Amino acid sequence: MNKQYIKAIEMLCLKCGLEVPKKISEITSLKVGEQECHITEHPTGRLLMFSSLDQITPQNFHILLEVSIFSQEEKKPIVGFDSEKDAFVLWNHQPIVQADCHTLYQQLELLSQYYDYIQEKLNDSDLDYKDSVEARKNLLNTGLFRV
């Protein structure tokens, strides 16, 4: 296992006030509130953090697309799909050689903030979807839009 990866896990644990694991495995998992965050080196030279997303339906899928839109922020989380587990994941990464205690914490914090944002939007989306369908029907019925 890469020594830089081990060092990164140690720094992150210390920064978060967590006990450093005696044995660091290829995938390290941390609990941040309700979120489980997994950390690994993938591909070689990149520190990857990811969390699983649930409650995804065709009605709220747009929330994931909104999160994955363009950004200049290097550690900005992106949504992907794990076909092996048939699950959506939120992930971000950074070069492991540039990782220090500040950038590691920033990476974890960004992942956690985006995760919370998505979960909040997913929880609200069921009501919003019903409201938006009704609003579209009303607009069409007023004659403002014609085909």
Automatic annotation (TrEMBL):
Gene3D superfamilies per the UniProt record, alphabetical: 3.30.1460.10
Short name of one Pfam family: CesT
Gene Ontology biological process terms from the UniProt entry: protein secretion by the type III secretion system
Alphabetical list of InterPro entries matching this protein: T3SS_chp_SycE, Tir_chaperone
Superkingdom of the organism of origin: Bacteria
Protein name per Swiss-Prot or TrEMBL: YopE regulator
Provenance organism: Vibrio sagamiensis NBRC 104589
